[in-house]
Write a structure and sequence with these properties.
InterPro entries: ATP-grasp (IPR011761), Gln_synth/guanido_kin_cat_dom (IPR014746), Glu_cys_ligase (IPR007370), Glut_biosynth (IPR006335), Glut_cys_ligase (IPR006334), GshAB_ATP-grasp (IPR040657). The chain has 755 residues and is α+β, with helices and mostly antiparallel strands. It is 38% helix and 16% strand. It has 26 helices and 23 strands.
């Protein structure tokens, strides 16, 4: 099979350069002092029996992050970013993930904990590994780069191959050639990306003054000594050789084969490769990059993708002897001094030139040119390679352990800079990010169906649920959302059930609403759009409004909707009750947007200062919205005799809005534990009356210390909200944050196994 010819003749270049990408990244949980963390795998990650993304490898202390396959490297790195945020925020506050391949400070070998799982066979397998290789070598961590060509490309090959058997043969030949040439030329990846020049004394008694390019890839690392006994010339030979190594007792199990290129098929048995073909290849020779917060940079992945495409595109095909030569060259490269030029530099230049030909033939993006140019520079300047850079840092007086502590803690802190966001998906609405975070932490299989529409697919076992905007689920009906979106319909339903609602009028035109001013000129009123959320277009007049102010409020409301409501203003304090699955999970007091004077700064300056709080942002990407300085705020100030240039007295509180929505700049105060149970019971009953499982009910309550009774109701319900924002409850300005995203997951998957 000549893949280059097939691609060229059938014009498949665009499909050939696509792929499916995944990364498995290992890392040791480490204490602040630089010691291996001996604590159990965090229970907050849920059960390892089903967790697809966060696992343990050999030891309880050795995390393994597994990204789901993605069709682009950019998408794959979004998931890698997100998983790092999940891990950093979930592991113990006194622990971090070690940034190097070579371990942190290790205890005596007998004290290194093997994984603790229910499956005794898994434990026994690792006990045999410990006996065979020693526990300390098991603690060497790295990156596995998983790659396959895209399903579109394989479908195109299928149409050319004509029969399934021929396609299976082509698939195996394709990935075998890639693997053969990878093993022959992998030394250049070790030269460029080798990043384990030293180890701590607790790992090895080797002379600490000796530096290497990559201890992990050297004979001092963790390898099978029999990998050269596995042939990559034909799939039958590859399968036969691995099975034979198991039969003769050289391998404990098939999975113990640690070749730098490991073919993966359907299921775990290697024999399935013959009947079902190779699905992807796992490339295992990469050190952790301590200069990348994620352990393997996007640029490294780009270069590796280009390298793999070239390994198939090139005319050269490696023999068994070539593969053995490649293994020797890789070991020699790993043992080199990081500051020395590669003894294979000439071949390296040849390889990079060949990769340039691949770029040109496939019309790859400029990103690939950039990483190739960097590789040329590193080939000429070994002192700029990763290992050399590490050694420079260590020669400046820092120990290996001190340097690891510094980097590891620094990378963990990045995940806490904005703990209400999930890196990789920060463009999404925040409640969806919170749900995504908990889904990944608990091990729900998660698929992002549409980031613009905030659509997630969550799967656990044989059950699948679809969620939009964080809490719009199958538990609520299509009509229930429309009921809550329409404030008039909501009021009528609740009123029919005997609940107290404000009196009001509905208008479909500005003219009709303005002409009705006489109905409200002596009343405290609220003017608001009929169907919008987030508090947009709402004006509140605690005292009778002037004709001009009323007319302006009407105009602003109609900007948000084709119909508006003018309702009686209800004296009291507004509280948001969030009901999820027939239970009040959060109650919040939302103070309207405000500033407090200091006698020196203008209102505009006070707003700008308050908006610098790290919890404040825009477009629902932060727990609190920034206070705006628009027409509604100007109108509100005018009613109080202020402008944005006014300087309020010290301690004087100035309102910028009457409505208390967080989405219009309000402050958040959690009141869940302070709210009388009678009001919580009412909120649950109202949700049932509306036949909804998730809603945000807004109640006006003059005195929360006085229980509401049938004879003396202490509330008025002003509206019900579908898709209530969850982020403002998770990160509050005052009080206890409430994780509502987790409550949504519990509602959807009540039987999820967290043990």
């Amino acid at each position: 099979m000549n893949i280059k010819q097939i691609v060229t003749v059938h014009h498949l270049q665009e499909l050939y350069k696509k792929g499916s990408f995944g990364i498995e990244k290992e890392g040791l949980r480490t204490t602040r002092e630089g010691d291996l963390a001996l604590s159990p795998h965090p229970a907050l990650f849920g059960s390892r029996k089903h967790h697809p993304y966060i696992q343990t490898d050999f030891s309880e202390s050795q995390l393994e992050l597994v990204t789901p396959p993605q069709n682009t490297l950019k998408e794959q790195y979004k998931w890698l970013e997100a998983l790092h945020d999940v891990v950093n925020r979930t592991i113990d506050t006194e622990e971090f993930v070690w940034p190097f391949s070579m371990p942190s400070r290790l205890p005596d070998e007998k004290n290194i904990p093997i994984i603790k799982v229910e499956d005794r066979k898994e434990i026994e397998y690792r006990e045999q590994l410990a006996e065979k290789y020693g526990k300390k070598k098991q603690m060497i961590s790295g990156v596995h780069y998983n790659f396959s060509f895209s399903s579109d490309f394989m479908d195109a090959l299928a149409s050319i191959a004509e029969t399934p058997e021929k396609l299976t043969s082509w698939s195996n030949d394709l990935y075998l050639k890639m693997s053969r040439n990878y093993l022959r030329y992998q030394w250049i990846l070790t030269y460029l990306f080798g990043a384990s020049p030293v180890s701590d004394d607790t790992f090895s008694s080797e002379d600490s003054r000796q530096y290497y390019r990559s201890i992990r890839n050297s004979p001092l690392g963790y390898h099978n000594s029999f990998t050269n006994k596995v042939s990559y010339q034909a799939i039958e030979e590859y399968v036969r050789d691995i099975e034979h190594l198991v039969e003769e007792g050289t391998l404990i199990e098939e999975r113990e084969y640690y070749g730098s290129a490991r073919l993966r098929g359907k299921g775990k048995a290697v024999r399935n490769l013959i009947s079902s073909g190779t699905r992807y290849v796992e490339f295992r020779s990469f050190d952790l990059n301590p200069f990348s917060r994620l352990g393997f940079s996007y640029e490294q992945s780009l270069f590796t993708h280009l390298f793999l495409m070239t390994m198939v595109w090139m005319d050269k095909d490696s023999t068994t002897e070539d593969v053995k030569t490649g293994a020797e060259m890789n070991e020699q490269t790993a043992m080199e001094d990081p500051f020395e030029s590669s003894r294979f530099k000439e071949e390296g230049q040849f390889l990079l030139n060949m990769m340039k030909e691949t770029i040109n033939a496939l019309h790859l993006s400029s990103e690939y040119d950039a990483v190739l140019e960097t590789a040329h520079t590193l080939l000429d300047h070994p002192e700029q390679t990763l290992s050399a850079r590490i050694v420079k840092e260590l020669e400046n007086g820092r120990s290996f352990i001190e340097y690891g502590i510094n980097l590891g803690q620094q990378y963990k802190e990045v995940s806490f800079e904005k703990p209400f966001l999930v890196k990789g998906f920060t463009e999404m609405e925040m409640s969806t990010q919170l749900l995504l975070f908990d889904a990944l932490k608990l091990g729900l299989e998660t698929e992002l169906l549409d980031s613009h529409d905030q659509f997630l697919k969550l799967t656990h076992g044989d059950k699948t649920e679809y969620v939009r905007n964080g809490n719009m689920t199958s538990k609520d009906t299509y009509i229930s959302h429309w009921i809550m979106a329409n404030k008039t319909v909501t009021k009528k339903i609740l009123k029919n059930y005997g609940y107290r609602v404000p009196h009001g009028e509905e208008f479909a035109s500005i003219e009709d609403a303005v002409n009705a001013y006489a109905l409200f000129d002596r009343k405290a009123i609220v003017v608001k759009p009929k169907s919008t959320n987030y508090g947009l277009g709402i004006s509140i007049f605690k005292h009778p409004a002037s004709y001009e102010a009323y007319s302006e409020a009407v105009r602003l409301a109609f900007e948000e909707d084709g119909q508006i409501l003018v309702e009686d203003y209800i004296e009291g304090t507004e509280y948001r009750f969030v009901v999820i699955d027939d239970k009040v999970e959060a109650v919040m007091l939302r103070q309207p947007a405000n500033v407090t004077g200091d006698g020196r700064q203008t209102i505009e300056q006070l707003i700008q200062k308050k908006n610098t709080h790290p919890y404040r942002g825009t477009n629902h990407r932060a727990p609190l919205e920034k206070i705006k300085m628009g027409e509604l705020e100007r109108l509100m100030l005018k009613e109080q005799g202020y402008t944005f240039d006014s300087i309020p007295a010290e301690g004087e509180r100035v309102l910028l809005r009457e409505n208390s929505n967080i989405s219009t700049g309000g402050d958040s105060i959690d009141m869940t534990d302070d709210m009388d149970e009678s009001y919580k019971k009412l909120a649950v009953e109202m949700a049932k009356a509306l036949e909804v499982k998730v809603t945000g009910l807004d109640l006006i309550i003059p005195d929360i210390d006085r229980p509401s009774t049938k004879d003396k109701p202490g509330y008025v319900v002003i509206e019900a909200n579908f898709n209530p924002a969850m982020h403002m409850h998770a990160f509050v300005q005052k009080g206890k944050g409430r994780n509502l995203a987790r409550k949504v997951i519990d509602m959807l998957f009540p039987s999820i196994d967290l043990s």
